[in-house]
Specification:
Radius of gyration: 20 Å
Structural class: mainly alpha
Order of helices and strands: HHHHHEHEEHHHHEHHH
Length: 322
């Protein structure tokens, strides 16, 4: 009787874990939303919801690139430092116009991603080691570029980008939404997206099949660097100040959490962009809930650690049940 029950229970357990892995983030987000309706004053107001969306933007934009990297079984720890470099570079070139200054920032992000991608794809350095070097060195470079000083951003175009809106929706939120759609289409509708998933699932098999593994890996890190640079520009514009010592601090952890909670496994082979968006919203809502209810902000980091540990455990158990 025991032997008959065990096989029957195993598929049911696997299905349950699969549901939690694929849809748990939406359930958690909905549950936390309902909790806030009860315990948080003025939660369901346009101003509050707009504020939460704006504050979520940097994490979401960075997480989109992180999802691609994790999809290849890698990780990019340099994104926070890339944001800091962007913030330091932005005021240096504003004399030539906001567009050119933002373009320089995008090139800097692409260069950082190119360096990481080259180390991973061609030198064979582990992703965590390659990007950890930029995590440390990039922040130092940003401080050197900024002279260790916080600088006000007085450019009217950047100020409008950070504070302006259309039909009540902030420009930064619209940009993040467009980027999410574009990355989602890139993953689901293009050959490149299928190559990313295939390489993450089995790099050796992908190479034997003739896929351009090294080129795809480099491209993924370049895209991640450019998205981090965009996040840096948007965050600097919103703050109307360049602060490379603080901007992007620990955002790599928030981005990784959003990606993993959203259903993209650290073992690669799958990329869930919609889940990543929900994961970023969940991370923002957790922090906002704790702060608005006078809970120490340090507990938000502990909550994120518990969430990512639970997500990884569910993924591991789900894989083991197959």
């Amino acid at each position: 009787m025991t032997t008959a029950t065990a096989p029957a229970a195993a598929p049911g357990r696997a299905r349950a874990l699969g549901l939690v892995r694929d849809y748990g983030v939406y359930f958690a987000l909905g549950l936390l939303f309902l909790v806030n309706l009860v315990v948080t004053d003025n939660f369901l107001t346009a101003d509050n919801l707009r504020t939460q969306a704006v504050q979520m933007v940097p994490t979401l934009v960075v997480a989109l690139g992180m999802a691609l990297v994790i999809g290849t079984k890698g990780v990019d720890l340099s994104v926070g430092s890339v944001m800091a470099i962007t913030s330091a570079l932005l005021p240096l070139y504003l004399g030539y116009g906001a567009g050119l200054s933002a373009g320089v920032c995008l090139l800097a992000g692409a260069a950082a991603g190119l360096l990481s991608g080259y180390l991973v794809a061609f030198v064979g350095v582990q992703p965590i080691v390659a990007t950890l070097a930029l995590l440390v060195g990039g922040r130092g470079l940003a401080l050197v570029l900024a002279g260790g000083q916080l600088k006000d951003i007085r450019n009217p175009q950047l100020r409008e980008l950070g504070a302006g809106s259309v039909l009540g929706i902030p420009y930064t939120v619209l940009i993040a939404a467009v980027l999410a759609v574009l990355v989602g289409l890139l993953v689901s509708r293009t050959t490149f997206g299928r190559q990313v998933v295939a390489i993450g699932g089995n790099p050796k098999a992908a190479q034997f099949a003739g896929l351009p593994v090294k080129r795809v890996l480099v491209t993924v890190y370049v895209v991640s660097g450019m998205l981090a640079a965009i996040a840096g520009v948007l965050a600097t514009a919103r703050l109307s100040a360049s602060d490379p010592s603080r901007l992007g601090e620990l955002i790599e952890l928030a981005a990784i959490t959003a990606v993993v909670v959203g259903g993209t496994p650290l073992t690669g082979g799958r990329v869930r962009i919609l889940g990543t968006v929900a994961g970023a919203a969940l991370m923002q809502l957790i922090v906002a809930t704790l702060i608005k209810n006078d809970v120490p902000a340090s507990l938000a980091q502990m909550a994120q650690a518990l969430i990512i540990a639970a997500a990884v455990l569910v993924q591991r158990e789900g894989n083991g049940s197959r």
